[in-house]
Design brief:
Three copies of one chain form a homotrimer. By secondary structure, chain A is mainly α. Chain A has one domain. Chain A is 76% helix and 0% strand. Chain A is built from eight helices and no strands. The longest helix of chain A has 27 residues, at 2-28. Chains in contact: A-B, A-C, B-C. The interface between B and C is medium-sized, with 32 and 31 residues. Chains A, B, C: Residues 9-83, 95-169 form the Glycine transporter domain. Chains A, B, C: It is found in: Cell membrane.
Chain lengths: 209, 209, 209
């Protein structure tokens, strides 16, 4: 009971963080309010929709729980009026986004396991759920997806590790909450550590020169 | 009977307008004839394919009615030989495109309702059906999607309003034609009015300075 | 028996070629190792995943045969350490990629026929299977899709012709191998001939001036 409420709250924080990141990119790209709402919505639901389409769970969850749409619309409204203040709160957005990454990635892997996919496929789908929305946001916004760039701090790597933890624990019949919440916290923690310590991913050698 | 023929004609005008807009963007981007055909095809069917994949109606309609493929191929041929003349007819293309937006958006919402989705989800899917093809066209063509940009006239807003009208009427058990045709005309009309009067969407405040 | 092994080998060459082309583009775009792995994976599986989602075969093959994931990961490792040498082997990559195009396009059409789609839809899906991964690679890498550009040698055209051959033969009840392998060789051959002889597609007239 308490844990369900906790999950809902954490999930909401993740949705809100992704929504804000989409709305704020739209402000930076000087889009209008429709551009903000579209980018916020796609960033919020993109990863989960791709996951659901791939596993064949259609219509996707985002279309069955449409009151979730309140989240990107509220984020659009907030960013519309208060984006200078939010931009100053850039660190808070990074923290929220890291929470979203952890929650979405781990949830994606857990759902894929429930749908009978193999462990390796479940890790892949978890990562897709975590990073898919941000990739769509960047492509629509006309930027190279942050997750691919060498100047970005570790993002996919903690997701891969955390999803592997979740999938391993679920394969060992560990309880869902015990298999997901610590792994989500691990992803969020490593991501924040990477931002703080400026950890970046390995780069092919010749390009160093 | 008459109304079915009318619907077919209107739908055809919408398909043709979207196909032409894709082929003409390919000309502007200096693509070859394959680039023209690919862009025309994706613009014509993109929104409907996304809608069908999301609601789980696979293979999508565009693959079941493949003679529709004649439309983007004919548009490619016409644009290949006559694009200077068509470009001079830019206003005609804008009118056709507005008709396509209205027809596709309203049809998308009606189909979503028939498939049992909730009213809010049906509005979303209608808008996706209307604007999806154009977004794919712009992304593949290397431009920022027009629907997101502040310098574009109202496009998504009339679609949202028109789909809301259709969904409301369908929820009240109004006949399909009565619930869709006026709403499609409303979308087309508001869009054309916006182009004519240069109505643009609201923009976040700080960027005015 | 022998023919099945042959098919597997040819398919593997195609997967590996597409994987390398994705990893090498990531190197050229100065992405990090995650960017390489993501681009390699999407290029390898993108076309087939789109095909499977469109015909409704979910989860897509790539998620059911996850050991295939070894291919893009190995390509990433190879490109990470040896990309200067591979870049010098650019011709080998072009040959591999042409093999991949032929195999994937023809396999895509054959699968669509098996799933009961119409011949024209099967040709379309074959072409999508062949060119889809490369289009996603280019969009994510921030480049205009090569297949659309006028300065690219024939790529989609041999795929369209070869898929038409396969679909025609399958419609005439020709054996699967006889309907696919020669058509795949035809696509690969025409593509390589086009690269060698610098054949490009037709371009709309006014742009010549």
């Amino acid at each position: 009971m308490v844990s369900t409420v906790l999950l809902d709250v954490v999930n909401f924080v993740g949705l809100a963080a992704f929504a804000l990141s989409g709305a704020l990119m739209a402000v930076r790209r000087q889009f209008d309010v429709i551009g903000m709402a579209v980018l916020a919505t796609i960033t919020t639901f993109g990863g989960g929709v791709i996951r659901d389409v791939l596993i064949g769970d259609t219509p996707p969850e985002a279309l069955r729980n449409v009151w979730w749409l309140v989240v990107p619309l509220a984020a659009t409204a907030v960013a519309f009026f208060f984006h200078p203040q939010i931009t100053r709160l850039r660190r808070a957005v990074v923290v929220f986004d890291a929470i979203g990454l952890g929650v979405f990635a781990v949830n994606g892997s857990a759902k894929a396991m429930q749908w009978g996919l193999s462990p390796l496929a479940a890790v892949m789908l978890g990562v897709v759920t975590g990073i898919g929305g941000g990739i769509l946001r960047d492509v629509l916004g006309g930027e190279t997806p942050a997750v691919l760039r060498r100047d970005s701090q570790l993002y996919a790597i903690p997701a891969i590790l955390g999803c592997t933890i979740t999938v391993t624990l679920l394969a060992l019949d560990v309880h869902l909450l015990a298999a997901t919440l610590p792994a989500a916290a691990f992803i969020t923690g490593v991501r924040l550590l990477a931002v703080w310590r400026r950890w970046t991913g390995p780069v092919p050698r010749a390009l160093h020169g």
